Amino acid sequence: MKKMNKLYMGTNTKMYKTIADTVDYLNELSTLTEDLDRKHLELFVIPSFTALESASKTVSPESIKIGAQNMCWEEQGQFTGEISPLMIKEIGVSIIEIGHSERRHVFGETDTEENKKVLAALKHEFTPLLCVGETLEQRQLNVSDEYLRIQLKVGLDGVTREDAHKLWIAYEPVWAIGVNGIPATAEYADNKQKVIKNTLIELFGDAGLDIPVLYGGSVNPDNVEGLIQMPNIDGLFIGRSAWDAKGFNKLIRQAMPLFMGK
Ligand code: PGA
Prior knowledge:
39% of the residues lie in helices and 15% in strands. The protein has 10 helices and 8 strands. Strands 1-2-3-4-5-6-7-8 form an 8-stranded parallel beta barrel, surrounded by 5 helices. Helix 1 (19-32) packs parallel to helix 2 (52-58). It is globular. It starts with 6 loop residues before the first strand and ends with a helix. The site of 2-phosphoglycolic acid has 13 residues, from strand 8.
């Protein structure tokens, strides 16, 4: 598989940081990582909606890109509680996270809805970060590959080969995420990342090779090195272990030399 020239490292802060927390965190993270060459590192943070405007004023996209955790596919209308692409566009956000496991499994979002969000994100020139991952039950039934392929084929329906390079994908097995998560082994994760990459090639031909595929789910200081050396892992999408700027900075510094050397 083609090697990406950049390591992708990002975090979704879920519903944990206020505006003040987010600004402090971003200031600290940008200072700690300022010596790291952005030619080889794509660093991104995805805070809560209320913090987005302050976040995008705090750091430049060259240093840390900012993303939104969700987005409605409609531009306006009778959709109480939703946030439209036009509203997010106003505040300097570049990435839209789509279909995180909690959106799918706590809030009941479907592949068809994720697909509408992907297409809306592309239309409004955001980078869609589509998250996919199998549940424990699917893994036990040995149908993980089938589910990953369905999530990708439905979620990316209608995306053209010309637009494929604008996509980012995160593989996050549901059973590996969060406080009750069991980290996937590096070998298991790499095997599924390969299934994802092969599906992207099937969908987009060679353009599928340009789509970064990140791994997420209980990434921590003990497993980061094993994961990032795997051939099909282009970066890491981290929750708990990245919410302290010093901890995140350490993970990036653990991963970067190994990624560059593989
Ligand atoms: P975790 O979260 O690293 O805390 O398991 C990962 C995620 O939800 O993206």
